[in-house]
Structure formats: structure tokens, C-alpha cells
Amino acid sequence: MTRARAGLLHTPHGVIETPVFMPVGTQATVKGLAPRELAGELGVGILLANTYHLYLRPGADLIRRMGGLHRFMSWPRAILTDSGGYQVFSLSGLRKITGDGVVFQSHLNGDTHRFTPESTVETQLTLGSDIMMMLDECPPYPVSHEYARAAMQRTVSWARAAHAYFEQRRGSLSTRHALFPIVQGSMFADLRRACASEMVELDTDGYAIGGLSVGEPRPLSLEMVEATEALLPRHRPRYAMGVGMPEELPEYVALGIDMMDCVLPSRNARNGFLFTSAGPLRIKQARYQDDPRPLDPTCSCYTCTSFSRAYLRHLFQAGEILYAALATLHNIRRYLDIMREIRHAILSGGYPEYLRTVRSVAVEIE
After folding, report:
1. Which entry of 82, 130, 258, 296 is annotated as an active-site residue?
2. Is the peptide bond before 35 cis (omega within 30 degrees of 0)?
3. Are 365 and 72 a contacting pair, CB within 8 Å?
4. Is 82 a catalytic residue?
5. Rounded to an integer, what is the distance from CA 84 to the centroid of its chain?
6. Are 225 and 357 in the same domain?
7. 349 conformational bin, left if phi > 0, alpha if psi -120 to 50, beta if neither
8. What does the pLDDT look like over 303-313, one tens digit per residue?
9. Which of 123, 132, 160, 267 is spaced 20 to 30 Å from 48 by Cα?
């Protein structure tokens, strides 16, 4: 038996079938793809944008004057925004944590800025996000139990402040938004459980599990999700942030995860690393120089139905922009196809068998 489930996530910009993978459009764009490709050919129902980057450039006020993030980027469907906490805490020497937020220097020009639980909610409201994230402290890996506990307690304190501010603002809003807290605790199951218990008391629209994919071994990441998920309400969506490789997606779903995002399909595409139904393919390898076959014969995306591996390798070797667009299109399609397979297996009652099959295939590829 697994905890996998299929559901419907209702947002102001459409109903989303879950489990769902969200492509990452950090700066109001999924690199290499136009919104019409994402919404049209790929059928993406929700994508992710980042508050930190949009706050710094072009600025939330400018986006508001342009009609909000949906209109600014001409995206008709749902948007989830991260609070920017992960990016701020990645700055290391360029930030200072205080009791009520974090002061940091822009990576663009060194200007000093301050994020608080309240200000990050207000910024995301200004952007017009459908789903917003609360400010959290995301510790690196590895850290001591003491450090992780302090970061977790700070995250809980910030979540309470963000939730109170949002509840205060909610009555004056003409639009609907959801605000998720983020469960932290590094790779310590006791801290994860303690954090989840505190967050559940807020009774929010959904819950995120953060602090994953920060350098920890994959089995440890799954252990932390399992420890956390058991305490989260079954009737609310659960979002595992920043995961994962194609073979990991079914594992997170088996643990009860409904939503995932990751830069891997787009970033790896640009670097020549492509995901196929037969396993990973590195297009720069000489063996593909005169290979007439499609990238993935089982895929019906525009890239696979129109171009050969030889042509894609040529574009990559020549540094052509078209390569990045075609490769990203395929990689995201691969992730979305996996999620469609997963949902179908859940609805048909065959998910345990599906999971056994994909696990055996992953072993063969390795």
C-alpha cells in the first residue's frame, strides 16, 4: 500500500489535477519556452515564480502597475510564488538574520533590503500569486541539531506572524489567494515532526515541506517527507519543494505528496542532459553525431516528432538558442508525462504495481 492520492486543486486561475509537477519560471519565464507552448502544447496548469528575484527586478510595484504577474507575463493559469527565503539564505555572507526577518544585500548591485514574514506576504499579494509561501529559514546540509532547531523555531515564529498578517488582510482583498507554511527541521525527524505539529495548528489551505534538495542523500530526503507527511491533514494539499529527478517523482507521490517543482528539467536541458523513457541521454556524446532517431521514440512532443538526435547535437555543439528551446520543451514534457502516468495509475487502482515497475526500470538504467 502507498499514500498516493489523486485530487483536484481549485485556484482562481483554473482547476489543477494532482499529483502535479510545476515547471519553474523563476523570473516570470520558464527559460526557452513561451507561455503559449507551456499552456498549449504542454498543458501546464500551474508554474512557479520567485519572489526574491521579482522583488529585486523588475520590482513588485512595477508588476502591479502592469496588471499583476499573470498579465505581466501573459500567463492565464495558476502561479505559485516562493517567499524568497531559500534564495536569501543561499546568500550566506550577504545576509543577517534578525528576530523578525532577514536583512540581505542584493546579488545584483549590493543594495540592502529587508524581508519580514509580513512583507513577503504583501509582496506576493502585490504580484497576485494564486498560492503564496510563508518566509522560512532553510538551513544548509549538514548542520547540527542545535542549529536546525533554532532555524525551525524561527520558521514557526515567522509562520505565525505571516498567517496573522494574511488573515488581517484577507477581508479587504477582492481576489482569492492561498498561503502555505513551510515545514523545516533539516534532516532530523524529531524536528520535522515538531515543526509540522506547530504548522498544522495554523489550519492553512495547504502545507509545504522545504529544506529538501540541499545536498542531502536522496533516501534521507524521502525519510524527512515521510516523517512530516504523517502529521499533515489529509484533506489539504502537500507540496515538496525543489524535487526531484524523474525516478524520484513516483516515490514522493507514494509518500502522499501532491505538488512538486524542480529546475532540473529546464536547467539540465540547457546543459545537454535530456530525460527519456529509456533513461538519461547526454546529447553532446559523439555517438549521436549521425543518429537519425528521435530523442525519445515514445514521446509525442514537437521536439521528438520533428528532429533527430543528430540535429539536436549539432544545435547544442553550435551553441544555438533553438537547442535550449527544443530540449527544454522535451524535458518538461517528460516530467508532465510521468505525472500523467502516475495519476492514471492511482485512479485505476494500479499504483503499487506501477511503483514496482518504475523501480525495476530505474535499477536497470543505473
Report:
1. 82
2. no
3. no
4. yes
5. 13
6. no
7. left
8. 999 999 999 99
9. 160
Among residues 243, 262, 281, which one ends one of the domains? 262
CB distance 204 to 167 below 8 Å: no
Q: Is residue 28 part of a domain?
A: no
Instruction: Fill in the amino acid letter for 206.
Output: G
Task: Look up residue 147 and give its amino acid.
Answer: Y
Total domains present in the chain: 2
Whether residues 280 and 252 fall in one domain: no
Asked whether 287 and 313 are in contact (CB, 8 A), the reply is no
Q: Which residues lie closer than 8 Å to 347 by C-beta, 6 or more apart? A: 6
Buried b / exposed e along 43-57 (16+ C-beta atoms within 10 A): ebbbbbbbbbbbbbe
Looking up residue 240, the CATH number of its domain turns out to be 3.20.20.105
Tens digit of each residue's pLDDT (9 = 90 or more) over 279-330: 999 999 999 999 999 999 999 999 999 999 999 999 999 999 999 999 999 9
Per-residue pLDDT tens digits for 93-132: 789 988 899 999 999 999 999 999 999 999 999 999 999 9
For residue 5 the three cell numbers come to 492520492
Residue 255 shares a structural domain with residue 208? yes
Counted residue by residue, the chain has a size of 366
**pTM of the model as a whole:** 0.96
* Catalytic pick among 130, 136, 258, 261: 261
Task: Copy the grid coordinates of residue 97.
Answer: 538574520
Residue 229 and residue 354 in one domain: no
Question: Domain for residue 344, yes or no?
Answer: yes
